[in-house]
Amino acid sequence: RKAASLLNPQDSNPIDRLLNTLMIAWAEFGDGKGEAALKSVLALDGPPWYPVFTRYHAGAMAQAMGNKAEARKHFTDLIADPQSGAAAPDTYIRAVMALAAMEAREGNNRAALDALATGEDFSPGYAPLAALRQLIEDDGKPEAGVMTAQQGSAAVLFTLGSALNREGAEE
User: Fold this and answer.
1) Whole-structure pTM value
2) pLDDT by residue for the chain (171 residues), tens digit each?
3) How far apart are CA 80 and CA 75, in angstroms?
4) Three-state SS annotation for 66-103
5) Among positive and negative, which fits the CA dihedral 19, 26, 45, 51?
6) Is there a contact between 78 and 98 (Cβ–Cβ < 8 Å)?
7) Which residue in 60, 3, 55 sits closest to 28, CA to CA?
């Protein structure tokens, strides 16, 4: 809570605004205000590359709240738009894996494998996708990724950091 008070969600820099809003949202989530946190993520408006982040974090937050239908919607909306994934390929793949894992845990192995196929088209030969495919084909139940405010905050730093660190991000 204290850290969230130091973040300015109205920052004029789009990266800072995204970072601060997502971090505040995960702090609210951790404070038991998941619905309000999710609404703030969904209300975030910005450059055309925002949706890859907002959809991923909305999906992760909804999943952590136990709202599988809403999580499925946000993850599916993201992976149905591979062009947006080009802004943050690691985040796109995280969404693919999160959706596939959730579907597998629900016993929807066909849907899980379909999600993975989308990821494999986006990033052919990516070993973590192959490992997840094998686990699902063996009827394994992958663990959920982000389930706590701490994990959500770490995911914010990872998703934004990996996007900024990729080749071509300076554009």
Assistant:
1) 0.91
2) 555 555 555 667 899 999 999 999 999 999 999 999 999 999 999 999 999 999 999 999 999 999 999 999 999 999 999 998 999 999 999 999 999 999 999 999 999 999 999 999 999 999 999 999 999 999 999 998 899 999 999 999 999 998 887 665 444
3) 9
4) CCHHHHHHHHHHHHCCHHHHCCCHHHHHHHHHHHHHHH
5) positive
6) no
7) 3
For residues 51 and 48, what is the distance between their CA atoms, to the nearest angstrom?
7
Residue 56 has which token pair? 């991923």
Residue 13 amino acid letter: N
Q: DSSP letters along 101-145, please?
A: HHHHHTT-HHHHHHHHHHHHHHSTT-HHHHHHHHHHHTT--PPPS
